[in-house]
Amino acid sequence: MARILTRTSPSLSVFACCLFLLFSPSMLFAAELQIQSDTLLRVFERDTTGTGDELVAPIYQYLKLNADNFSVEGLSFHAYGWGRQELLDSDFFREQSSGELIYAYLEYTAPDAPFSARLGRQYIFSGVANDSIDGLWLKGTLSEYFSASVYAGQPVGLSTTAGRSGDSIYGGRLAHKNKNFYEIGLSYQTSQNDGDTAANLLGIDLSAGLPMNASLYGYSTRNLETEGWAEHSYEVNFQLDRFSFRPFYEYYSYLDYFDSGANATNPFKLLALSGEDLSTFGVDASWRQSESFTFGGKFKAYSYDQNQASNLISLIVSWNSESVELTQAGAEIGYMSGDAANNDYLLLRLYGFYDELGDRYWLDFISGDVVYALYDRDILGRSYSVFTSLGAGKTFFNDQLTLRLSGDYSQDPYFDDNLQVLLSASFAYDFSL
Amino acid sequence: MPKPIKIQYFLFLLLTSVLAACAVQTQSYRVPAQHPEDSGIGKRPPICVDCHEASDDQFNWQQFNHTTYFADNHRQVALRNEQACAMCHQTSFCNDCHATGLELKPSLKNQTETYRRTPHRGDYLSRHRIDGRVDPSSCFRCHRNPKASGSCVRCHG
């Protein structure tokens, strides 16, 4: 983790160290610590220099830590990150950063009040926010009818452009709820990159109960910079016996949706300039025919102000073993058909997973996957992609350690013959201090 | 640092103190921090209404049913109810698909978990040209900031 920290921005490491120092006395009283480590070794071939294929063999280390039951009731610490090391000196990863601290925060949940706070690097999902920040997030219930959350800090996603000074992000969500009849949420976010506005968004979300246990959900966002509606998404969710349905409608104005001010990156910058409008509608449905068989289907129609329309149809069937939880097999077929031929493609997928083989064989589970796509118009001179993967794994020490080996082979417009091997070791350890 | 930002921070602090003060006094329904461990929930994506009512006057369980397309269509429930997801999922679970600064796509990081419905399975470099053209809105949710579109730069400039 230290390695990952030093690779990310210096201000963050200082920040994280302060966090630790500040709380180290209570750290000592940590009663429970959970560690999960995943190590992945990938081996594949790439032509990185234009002189022929060479082997690339990166090793990835993911580390997750949860600590709770400190001397202060309601306090906990959570961290997660990854780092990569190339073992064979290939320069395949030359331009990419070699690790990331995904989160590292202290959390406090008041034991007998509806209030909680997080401090540090964290990921925020709330109304218009779907962002990683270095900062503070507070959540609370204000009364039977109102709840609110607010956050402020520095946006992690903007750290790679123009350094971090002058970067800031803050926002929040205020929700009004009347039991289970309805909930209306108002959310706001603004972020600055190097002092210039990157986002300035207002979101309105709605959920309302309808008769027969159906519900209506809606979400609209307004871009306060361009002063236009960026998105409207509305859906109804209902269940009839063993069927569930979700008809939906969505609208996007590219100019307002893809505009991200000082932050704009391609291809989204170009999309914003196109001034396109997209409307989609459709339904997805799921039918649990029996304990073992589940069917799913989806239809989605896309229509535009400028482009030519497209439709998507997808069907899925999956079979589950009744006795072994994860043993499953399934098939999926998808067809995208556009008025423009270069949008047409057919997608097929077959997969299987067989668990709890341990009684009979040395291995505990095996897995397989085939994904095939057929394009109406060739892409880089090829009309199809095929991807196949086979894997197997075994657990040791009461499931504390899992080893997995998988190999995949693919042929597609980008790679003629692509073979890749992946070996992974996952280790989970819980202990009390 | 420019002046307006400081004012914003001040307003923010003010708001939060109010929030904290109010929070201490009230009682209302709140989901538990963790879904009960002995509930027998299992490892498959759960259909909540197998064990719970569709809804009562405080909580709507049906909306969380992990139906066939839940991996594609959870956004409306998640943006309103992150605490409910947190009962069963640590953020790291979400971060396989949602994070700033990932390199391995989810189907590669968990390659043997073929029973999961993850985005970008198989050869996505080719397919993304069509998906991205037909509906780029979902791409933007995950790739919108410069760091999350780092791997796109080599082709999209």
Give an overview of the whole structure.
The complex is a heterodimer of chains A (433) and B (157). Chain A is mainly beta. Chain A has four helices and 23 strands. Chain A has a 22-stranded antiparallel β-barrel. The longest helix of chain A has 18 residues. Chain B is globular and about 50 Å long. The two termini of chain B are 30 Å apart. Chain B folds into two domains: 59 residues, no CATH class; 59 residues, no CATH class. The mean pLDDT of chain B is 85. Chain B is mostly helical and 157 residues long. Chain B is 44% helix and 0% strand. At the A-B interface, strand 3, strand 4, strand 5, strand 6 and strand 7 of A face helix 1, helix 3, helix 4, helix 5 and helix 7 of B.
Major sheet size, sense and barrel closure of chain B: none
* β-strand amount of chain A: over 45%
Overall mean pLDDT of chain A stands at 88
Task: Give the number of helices of chain B.
Answer: 9
Number of distinct beta strands of chain B: 0
What overall form of chain B do the CA principal axes indicate?
A: globular
The chain pair with the largest interface is:
A-B, 142 and 99 residues
| Proportion of residues in helical segments of chain B | 40-55%
Number of strands of chain A: 23
Q: In terms of quaternary structure, what is this?
A: heterodimer
* Helix/strand order of chain A: HHEEEEEEEEEEEEEEHHEEEEEEEEE
Based on CA inertia axes, which overall geometry of chain A fits?
Answer: globular
CATH top-level class of chain A? Mainly Beta
User: Under CATH, the topology of chain A is which?
Assistant: Porin
What is the CA-based Rg of chain B, rounded?
20 Å
**Number of structural domains of chain B:** 2
The Cα radius of gyration of chain A reads 25 Å
Low-confidence stretches of chain A: 1-10
Percentage of residues assigned to helices of chain A? under 10%
